[in-house]
Design a protein that fits this description.
The complex is a heterodimer of chains A (414) and B (261). Chain A has 414 residues and is of the alpha/beta class. Chain A folds into two domains: 130 residues, no CATH class; 242 residues, NAD(P)-binding Rossmann-like Domain (Rossmann fold), CATH 3.40.50.720. Chain A is built from eleven helices and 15 strands. The longest helix of chain A is centred in the C-terminal third of the chain and has 27 residues. The model of chain A has no long low-confidence stretch (mean pLDDT 96). Chain B has 261 residues and is an alpha/beta fold. Chain B has a single domain, classed as Putative cyclase (Glucose Oxidase, domain 1), CATH 3.50.30.50. Helix content of chain B is 19%, strand content 26%. In chain B, a hairpin with a 2-residue loop joins strand 2 and strand 3. Classes of the chains: A alpha/beta (414), B alpha/beta (261).
Chain lengths: 414, 261
């Protein structure tokens, strides 16, 4: 039985803010396969291509037949909880502040026995559990034993919340609320229990559909934020940057041009100014305070979400300059992820395929609805996923890109 | 004593005041907005280079960017398709003699307050001339609307779903001012020399079309026009000398007699 999360008390302003610490983050190169899968929300283990053995912990070779033909394969995670323990004393600085910490020994149906963090909803051992992989605050993949079926208040488990970025009771900044995607994201985080949502809107004289209605919601605070204006970003970070727990960057300029279809660089520059430099301005001004608040009580700063594009992986020539700006943003986001890690703040990149909006008017379906994109963002926050590929098109591109980036390049430029 | 020396003396004594007709260039000041598929005029943006810090220890400076038509600015004839082939039609080639001249200020503030889509007509100008005398040749005509007092950018832009609603000249008055009064240019306080709904006039954007087609100029986003007398002031409105430029932000100034001194 998990007690429901109650609204965190206001912070005592006389107490020093706890500094963020990270759990042990060192991994071998082989072990990073677990992290790579967990970043996508998958639990994968090494499977021997020669004898079929599933093994854990990850190694350079199969522990049974010594073959090096190891493949990471998705696992159901079902298994038997053999025994449990709770750590009450730890010399590790991170766990020292979080004891007691529950652990369990689980024998997977697939073979190996693993030590896993234990979700509070699991029955006493022996019982059936399901192992899932999550990213911890150091950004590394770890194993968590869940009850096999959904239990009440599942997401509110204290140990699980150290590995997720649930918007419940948190304060969220959505950087542009004038687009359909921005508005859908605002509504989705409110539905997920966000306490307060600042909604950025540039060029206030442009009254675009839906914004006035959105601004009238009780959880919404409109914010005059223009990512192309360094002064505006700096001022808003000064005014409320110290309170942002989750930043979701939805601001985007999208023009449907390749190189030959538009003369001059003005449209491409506008894309770069918002999609790349806008992210840089945000990161410089909002990053430091969020990084410092990574362990600031139950509603600490926890996540930074960038809405990128599947075209960040490989250029889609009909939208070529937009693709380039998103590729630049992806690269910068990797830098941001490395820099935010010391604060335990997760950087989540979302790679949607074409969204059903005006600049994709001429593209045939399937197109991702803004609502589906927003739900994928919330799901990633709740489940601690780092790289999100929402929808069929994104999933298909991802699979083709993982198989062969060159093949994908030739296919989409045909 | 030459008139210039006496002007300098009157400036020093305060008998002639200098009025700043310029809006401050800031990122918040609205830029003209076109449908998004068109190219856009850059708004004013400013980035610090250094401020007595590790980027430059003893000096403070900025880089700024903007369009030729950002803030209080000047339109050259080459700005419009009707003036594209005229001689000396750009900011670097135009006769600088044109950049200093007498101003005739027509007060339309009451009408613009009552109707944001107010259009100045020939009849209004003729009535103004009954009181203030005939507009002299090569004068600048400035349309005072007090629009610059709308400090909220939303009210200043005044968009609704049918576009912008700001005052400006009707088509016939523009032709009248050129053909019958030989004006140097036309200036407004709102974001264009044409009305917000000027696209729906005949021809579209008549002030741009006729003025620039006749080699005349435009000034927009002016302020402090309420501090100028209807006649008797002189304005300075030199654009930056941009090679083949279509316009430029300006520091617009007016010399105004000050009878109190």
């Amino acid at each position: 039985m998990i007690p429901p999360l109650s609204r965190p008390k206001r912070k005592n302003p006389l107490l020093r803010t706890r500094l963020p610490l990270l759990p042990p983050g060192a991994r071998s190169r082989a072990a990073l396969g677990l992290t790579a899968a967990a970043a996508l929300g998958r639990f994968e283990l090494q499977v021997c291509g020669h004898c079929g053995t599933v093994q854990y912990p990850p190694r350079e070779a199969c522990h049974r037949c010594l073959s090096d033909k190891l493949r990471w394969r998705e696992q159901s995670g079902l298994g038997e909880l053999l025994s449990t323990t709770a750590v009450h004393l730890s010399q590790d600085l991170f766990f020292r502040e979080r004891v007691p910490w529950s652990l369990g020994l689980v024998r997977l149906d697939a073979g190996p026995t693993v030590v896993a963090h234990l979700h509070g909803g699991c029955a006493p051992a022996p019982c059936r559990v399901r192992i899932g992989a999550r990213l911890d605050k150091s950004g590394q993949g770890v194993l968590l034993a869940f009850p096999p079926d959904e239990v009440l208040n599942m997401a509110d488990d204290r140990q699980l919340r150290e590995m997720t970025c649930d918007p419940k009771f948190r304060k969220v900044l959505v950087t542009d609320g004038k687009t359909a995607v921005g508005q859908a994201v605002v509504r989705a985080v409110i539905a997920a229990g966000a306490d307060l949502v600042w909604v950025g809107h540039a060029e206030p004289w442009k009254r675009l559909p839906g914004f006035a209605e959105l601004a009238s919601l009780p959880q919404v605070a409109p914010l005059a934020l223009d990512l192309t204006d360094s002064g505006s970003v700096k001022q808003m970070a000064g005014e409320m940057g110290g309170k942002v727990d989750i930043l979701i960057n939805t601001a985007e300029v999208h023009r449907a041009h390749g190189i030959a279809s538009r003369s001059g660089v003005d449209a491409a520059r506008a894309e770069m100014d918002t999609n790349y430099f806008g992210l840089l301005r945000l990161a410089q001004e909002f990053g430091p305070a969020m990084r410092a608040r990574g362990a600031d009580g139950e509603s600490s700063a926890t996540a930074w979400v960038n809405v990128l594009s599947i075209y960040a992986l490989s250029n889609f020539p009909p939208h070529g300059t937009f693709s380039a700006s998103k590729a630049a943003a992806l690269s910068l986001s990797q830098c941001l992820r490395a820099e935010m890690r010391s604060g335990g703040v997760r950087v989540i990149n979302v790679f949607p395929g074409p969204i059903d909006e005006e600049w994709n008017q001429m593209l045939p379906p399937p197109k991702l609805t803004p609502e589906a994109l927003a739900n994928a963002v919330v799901k990633a926050l709740q489940e601690g996923i780092e790289d999100v590929y929402p929808g069929d098109v994104a999933q298909e591109w991802l699979a083709r890109w993982q198989e062969s980036p060159k093949t994908l390049e030739r296919e989409v430029s045909a | 004593m030459s008139s210039l020396i006496s002007l300098a003396a009157e400036l020093a004594s305060g008998m002639v005041r200098v009025v700043d007709l310029t809006q401050t260039l800031s990122p918040e000041f609205p830029a003209i907005a076109l449908p998004p598929e068109f190219g856009q005029c850059w708004p004013f943006r400013i980035e610090e280079v250094s401020r007595y810090d590790e980027r430059g220890t003893a000096w403070y400076w900025n880089n700024f960017s903007c369009g030729e038509h950002t803030g209080t600015h000047f339109d050259a004839p080459i700005h419009w398709v009707s003036g594209r082939d005229l001689p000396r039609n750009a900011t670097d080639s135009l006769p600088v003699q044109h950049l200093i001249g007498a101003a005739c200020v027509i007060d339309c503030s009451a009408q613009a307050t009552a109707d944001p889509d107010f259009l100045l007509t020939v009849e209004h100008v003729r009535r103004w001339e009954v009181v203030n005398g005939r507009i002299p040749p090569r004068a600048w005509v400035l349309m005072r609307t007090d629009w610059s007092k709308r400090t909220d950018p939303v009210a200043y832009q005044n968009f609704d779903e049918t576009g912008q609603h700001t005052p400006g000249p009707a088509a016939d008055v523009v032709q009248f001012l050129i053909d019958e009064r030989d004006v140097t240019g036309f200036g407004t306080e709102s974001i264009g020399t044409d009305a917000g709904q000027g696209y729906h006039l005949k021809p579209p954007y008549p002030c741009h079309y006729f003025m620039h087609g006749a080699g005349r100029y435009g000034l927009q986003c002016l302020t402090n026009l309420d501090l100028l007398p209807p006649t008797g002031s002189v304005i300075f409105c030199a654009p930056l000398k941009i090679k083949n430029g279509s316009g430029s932000p300006i520091r617009a100034l007016a010399l105004v007699p000050n009878p109190k001194v």
